[in-house]
TrEMBL record:
The keyword DNA damage does not apply. It comes from Xenopus tropicalis (Western clawed frog). Residues 74-240 form the Armadillo repeat-containing domain. The keyword Hydrolase does not apply. This is Armadillo repeat-containing protein 10 isoform X2. It is found in: Mitochondrion outer membrane. ARM repeats lie at residues 119-156. Residues 43-58 have a biased composition (Basic and acidic residues). Gene3D superfamilies: Leucine-rich Repeat Variant (1.25.10.10). Its main location: mitochondrion. It is a single-pass membrane protein. Keywords: Membrane, Mitochondrion, Mitochondrion outer membrane, Signal-anchor, Transmembrane, Transmembrane helix. InterPro entries: ARM-like, ARM-rpt_dom, ARM-type_fold, Armadillo, Armcx_regulator.
Length: 242
């Protein structure tokens, strides 16, 4: 049974998340009005940078690790070879290196469409079932970077449940939890997949109460994203920790 102190802590933090979500909604509405006014005032000026339709993705990018200049210059056939190695090799050490390279290459938006067209998202996601924690982490990091692309999110959504399960089943404060939360943060920036994420609220509330500071911050980011969606308010308020 969840203790009163535990429940009170969760409710307090959840209230903060919902409050932050409401503030975010208000900010977004105000910013939208100011942007429209500014656009009218500057009509006829030079065209602005093209944005993602619907809502900009300001997610958490996994920073490339030790990226050499050559990583940004990988050609489609190089990426295809890496994905082929990931499919055919049973060498865990090699798989880890390939996933790190794919993660680093996915930090460059020019590679998002290429990796998707090569079937890379499905191939990378298969590594989520690997018994190696490090392989899971590297796969989640790669998917996280790829999720900065809206079209990629349409494919990555199929692995939201698996990602949340990995978060739930991993040891508390583990690298898998951190990597998984980063991906869920990105996937919950828009409200397209909120219902899928909300199915795992008991796990998030548990992490909010029991996780370390970093885990709590990442979990709060997920909850703030959900709370920015008015249809999620009742679900958030009635959810209970696992």
């Amino acid at each position: 049974m969840v203790g009163r102190g535990f429940s009170a802590t969760v409710r307090s933090l959840l209230g903060m998340a919902i409050g932050a979500g409401i503030c975010y909604c208000a900010y977004r509405m105000l910013f939208a009005r100011q942007r429209k006014k500014k656009h009218r005032d500057k009509k006829g000026a030079s065209r602005t940078r093209e944005k993602v339709p619907g809502r900009d993705l300001h997610g958490a990018l996994t920073k490339p690790e030790n990226v050499s200049a050559s990583v940004s210059d990988l050609q489609p056939h190089h990426l295809a070879n890496l994905l082929d190695i990931l499919v055919t090799s049973s060498d865990s050490s090699l798989q880890e290196k390939v996933l790190i390279t794919l993660c680093n290459s996915a930090a460059f938006s020019a590679n998002h469409d290429i990796i998707r067209s090569l079937g890379g998202i499905t191939i990378i996601a298969k590594s989520l079932s690997d018994s190696s924690e490090q392989i899971k982490v590297n796969a989640l990091n790669a998917l996280n970077n790829l999720s900065m692309n809206v079209q990629n999110q349409e494919l990555i959504k199929d692995y939201i449940n698996q990602t949340c399960s990995a978060i739930s089943l991993s040891s508390l404060n583990s690298e898998v939890q951190l990597a998984g939360l980063r991906l869920i943060i990105n996937m919950s920036v828009t409200d397209n997949y909120h219902n899928m994420v909300a199915d795992h609220l008991p796990c998030f509330l548990y992490l909010l109460a029991e996780g370390n500071n970093i885990i709590q911050i990442y979990t709060l980011k997920v909850l703030v994203n959900l709370s920015a969606n008015p249809t999620m308010t009742q679900t958030l308020l009635t959810a209970k920790p696992r």
